[in-house]
From TrEMBL:
It is a multi-pass membrane protein. This is MlaE family ABC transporter permease. Its main location: membrane. The chain crosses the membrane at residues 54-72, 84-107, 146-171, 201-220, 232-258.
């Protein structure tokens, strides 16, 4: 009986958190279009997030390209379909693997950082001091960070996808002596408009989710200094779950659209 009550309580808390997050998102859209704009802070956040995450994304993308090609090549060899390797790798990485892996990396790298940063500012009463001084902390701290993650994640995904395909080419060049021109001709011939547009659009939603959840967890951080770590940890967990939900919805909608 107690377990049933615990499940009900957890479900209730989950619904309350979804409602609070929705209200937080509505407040973001309200503040984002209200002057004045914090353009300098937005540019600074874009630089920090992009510059600090680029190396990690590039290294991860390169390893994904190497491993994916090494694992797939023996299977394709059994069916005599090694020539399909560039097409398969490029479509798989650009449609799905690149965006979701990059988003998960940024959720851990950027989302946790935002949660910890805003959480520490809340605990040390810096946000309260900004409100007293007449500054709008929500616009300065939250809006700029959410916009920065929304616009920077597609850029990071682009670099991650490009490096992953280059990593795949290196394996093919070593294993099958495939030239650079031949490999990338097959890559670009395999890609279509329907592969690029949906995968690009959903990266904006991924970036928005990372910034939104990270700011939400940090902005409403409680329980003193222990809450800072909790805010960073819960931001990563909640964002990761939300990314998979968004990805499923994006794939589902794309599938419906292309089968009309």
């Amino acid at each position: 009986m107690n377990s049933i009550f615990k499940i009900i309580e957890l479900f209730k808390n989950f619904l309350l958190e979804i409602g609070e997050l929705s209200y937080f998102a509505a407040r973001f859209f309200k503040e984002a279009f209200r002057p004045p704009s914090e353009f300098k802070e937005f540019i600074r956040q874009c630089f920090n997030m992009g510059n600090r995450s680029l190396l990690l994304v590039v290294v991860t993308g390169f390893i994904i390209g190497l491993v994916f090609t090494l694992q797939s090549r023996p299977t394709l060899q059994e069916f005599g379909a090694v020539s399909w390797m560039p097409s398969m790798v490029s479509i798989s990485i650009i449609r799905e693997i690149g965006p979701i892996i990059t988003a998960l990396i940024c959720a851990g790298r950027i989302g946790s950082g935002i949660g910890a940063e805003l959480g520490s500012m809340r605990v040390t009463e810096q946000i309260d001091a900004m409100e007293v001084s007449g500054t709008n902390p929500f616009k300065y701290l939250v809006v700029t960070r959410i916009l920065a993650t929304t616009f920077m994640l597609p850029v990071l995904v682009f670099f991650g996808d490009a490096i992953a395909i280059i990593g795949s080419y290196l394996v093919e060049n070593i294993k099958g002596n495939v030239s650079f021109l031949l490999y990338f001709n097959q890559v670009f011939n395999a890609l279509e408009f329907g592969d690029l547009v949906p995968s690009t659009i959903k990266t904006f939603f991924f970036g928005f989710a990372i910034g939104l959840v990270g700011c939400f967890k940090g902005y409403y951080c409680k329980k003193g200094t222990a809450g800072v770590g909790l805010a960073a940890n819960s931001a990563v967990v909640f964002t990761s779950m939300l990314l998979f939900i968004i990805d499923f919805i994006a794939v589902f909608v794309t599938d419906i659209f292309y089968h009309l």
